[in-house]
Amino acid sequence: MPTPIRKAVFPVGGLGTRFLPATKAIPKEMLPVVDKPLIQYAVEEAKAAGIEEFIFVTGRGKQAIEDHFDHSAELEALLSARGQADLGALGMLHLPPGAVAYTRQQDPLGLGHAVWCARHLVGDEPFAVLLADELVLADTPCLAQLVSLYDRVGGCVFALADVPREQTSRYGIVDIARDDGRVIEIKGMVEKPSPAAAPSTVSIIGRYIMQPSVFAELERKEKGVGGEIQLTDALARLLGRMPFHGLRFEGERFDCGSKAGFLKAQIAFALKRPELRDELMAYIGDQAGSRP
After folding, report:
1. Is the pLDDT reported for residue 82 higher than 70?
2. Distance CA 133, CA 63 (A)
3. Which secondary structure element, helix H or strand E, spans residue 47, and what is its range?
4. pLDDT at 90 over 60
5. What's the pLDDT tens digit per position in 121-130?
6. Chain centre to alpha carbon of residue 163
7. Can you give the pLDDT at residue 71?
8. pLDDT tens string 145-177
9. How many Å apart are CA 115 and CA 56, to the nearest integer?
């Protein structure tokens, strides 16, 4: 039985320049989808998958994330006085004392560097990484699906999605050894290859389960595409030492790092809310009917 996954890393140090001016003073991870910030969806997904320790790799201007997962005595007193003491019913999430840790990525040197910054907090055990701007709407949380596969195969496990060939230069792309339509055995991986050089059109999206040996590879601080320390490059050097698998997960993925993906997520998640669905559907129908 593989060592259980107890810890998750959330790299939240990015500047979110694609969402300026909204992200000038607000972390991009705090942008709300309906009424919850992106980072809360990621944390709730991790919690539902059995994660016990939550590690945030932050940067300058990310204080709002720390405050969001802390208690607010004034707000809670006000809500209690209004008869709204059930914070869970309001969608608010509190994590147990001692379950949350923060560390800083002082220099924006890439995703691999952000994960490396969490090495002392992770220690010598396997861990998950979740990117908050990759939002997945699923009956079974995406990370829980990965954990289920990991419990069977061990090693490293990633969430995978098929992408158009012309978009391979945006993602880490896997080279496939075996593919049963849902689980893929991985024999290679490359970060942001050109469409002509891509070994497949199957990409890693922002959910990872990894072994701590990746830290030794990240320690080399070798720069890859874009002059950044790429997580995919470090993982590729571990191939052959342990099993590597990917999962075509069940659910709909939204790239909330793009404006179009973020807007699609707003609609999809709002339509799942009974109190919003009918009014929103009526509005969408009216708009569609008014088009020339």
Report:
1. yes
2. 18
3. helix 38-48
4. no
5. 999 999 999 9
6. 17
7. 74
8. 999 999 999 999 999 999 999 999 989 999 999
9. 10
Query: Using an 8 Å Cβ cutoff, are 191 and 225 in contact?
Result: yes
Q: Which of 82, 121, 137, 80 is nearest to 215 (CA)?
A: 121
Neighbours of 152 (CB within 10 A): 11
- Give the C-alpha separation, 173 to 233, whole Å: 11
Residue type, 176: I
What is the CATH code of the structural domain delimited by 7-289?
3.90.550.10
pLDDT for residue 93: 78
Rounded to an integer, what distance in angstroms lies between the CA atom of residue 51 and that of residue 43? 9
Give the span between the Cα atoms of 268 and 252, in whole angstroms. 9
Q: In this structure, what token pair is assigned to residue 184?
A: 């893929």
What is the model's pLDDT at position 247? 97
Do residues 167 and 194 lie in contact, with contact meaning Cβ atoms separated by under 8 Å? no
Element holding 38 (H helix, E strand) = helix 38-48
Residue 6 three-state SS: coil
Task: Name 170's Cβ contacts closer than 8 Å, sequence gap at least 6.
Answer: 163, 192, 203
Spell out the domain ranges in the chain.
7-289
What is 56-123 written as a DSSP string? EEE-TT-HHHHHHTS--HHHHHHHHHTT---TGGGT---PPTTSEEEEE--S---HHHHHHTTHHHH-
> 24-77, pLDDT tens digit by residue?
888 999 999 999 999 999 999 999 999 999 999 998 888 899 888 887 777 777
Using CA atoms, how far apart are residues 26 and 98, in angstroms rounded to an integer? 26
Between CA 59 and CA 36 the distance in angstroms is 21
* pLDDT value, residue 61: 83
Question: Strand, helix or coil at 140?
Answer: coil
- Give me the torsion for CA of 158, 161, 166, 167, rounded to 10°: -60
Measured between alpha carbons, how far is 246 from 149 in angstroms, rounded to an integer?
9
Query: What mean pLDDT, rounded, does the chain reach?
Result: 91
